[in-house]
Amino acid sequence: xxxxxxxxxxxxxxxxxxxxxxxxxxxxxxxxxxxxEQQAGDFIDVYFNEAFVxxxxxxxxxxxxxxILEVGAGICIFSIFLKKSGFNIVALEPxxxxxxxxxxxxxxxLEIYSDINLEIxxxxxxxxxxxxRKFDFIFSNNVLEHIPNLKDSWLGMVDALSLKxxxxxxxxxxxFFPFEPHLSIPVIKYFPxxxxxxxxxKVKANLELWNSLNFISYRDVKDLAKNSNLAIVFKRELLAKxxxxxxxxxxxxxRHSSKFFLIAYKLIKKTHFYTLLKYIPPSFSTxxxxxxxxx
Length: 295
What we know:
Blueprint: H1 2-7, H2 10-19, H3 22-32, H4 37-58, E1 67-71, H5 77-84, E2 88-92, H6 100-112, E3 119-121, E4 137-141, H7 150-160, E5 167-172, H8 192-198, H9 200-205, H10 207-212, H11 218-227, E6 230-234, H12 238-248, H13 250-255, H14 259-269, H15 273-276, E7 288-294
Parallel strand pairs: 1-2, 1-4, 2-3, 4-5
Antiparallel strand pairs: 5-7, 6-7
Helix pairs in contact: 2-4, 3-4, 3-6
């Protein structure tokens, strides 16, 4: 574990992202996809920034002797970084409907970094059961909420987990907490149609994304882990840290700039409830990060 801390840091990732040919990437996105130059730049900036969340997610968990799988690698920039840093990483990215922009950006980045030979599995997670592949460490960042057949996909990941010391860690929203973070609107897990009706213009503008959501919750994850005989540990204080990120991360704040969210955010900050956020148990908090391992 010390080897990981010595060899990969936020500074390493920042230097890698700063060295990426941003203007070339933007130009290719404009040429190949339905992007304006501004949209392409904003898109790349958001997902480059999210790479730091992925780094924090796996921090102190991996080493270069492990076989690692990133599930839902998106534009693959973080997997490219890990591969370039000497880690044995495979990226699973099925390029499903509703995420065409990711597919275009992924193709552009894989062409630019073709020399590192990152292996891509162009398949949904449930097909991992058919591949006869084993990984020591599996992770995902804001992916599980978009998987339509979550139970089968979970079983596919469990099947691909090494029998000895296999672990996986995931980060995603907890929809028991009545908030949809992609659109920054309130939502009730069992009655999402109410939000779709009240916030119809916002949902229609992001319909493909909305239709991809499965509204995963803490209880869903607990049941999945129990039924697959995995030990599970939830990270605490994530809601409090999300509020800190609102203050410290301009890109993250811009993505949560809806009128509803800003009113709720200002109200919470002005009350004593803000100081109590870190004490909220993971079952009632969002997002959620959890580590699963074989018993």
